Model the fold of this input.
Amino acid sequence: MKPWIRIAMLMTLTVCGTIASSARGPKTAVDQSKPAAGTPVADDNMTPYRKLAADTLKAFQAHDMPTAKTKARELEGAWDTREKALKKKSPDLWGQIDKAMDAFIKPVQGKSPDPAKVQTAYDTYIGKLQLAVESDTEPKQ
Done:
């Protein structure tokens, strides 16, 4: 078969495949900056940290370690400078979140982190952030 015929057939199959897959409708992406399913969350004061953590995890999963390390440093810096009010209001909760964040970012900054441990630490960190949101929404007595 001549090369130009192969190219024409390949292009035809590519176009048909693209049309067929787009006819199925859009796929929804999973937003990892939100907690696990079943946990309702509005845009709250913990959203920036969820977003930075999700960006860190996404870069880590894509094996983009320079970006993952940069995002991890940004997350730690943002947390340490912006959450002084929470530290005063609820030092125990602040400490739990800080410890979970450290457990998440330390392996990312290491040489050869275990992906399962990083994912588990990320999930734990997101859960701890949700505790801060819930403590803000509890009725005051």
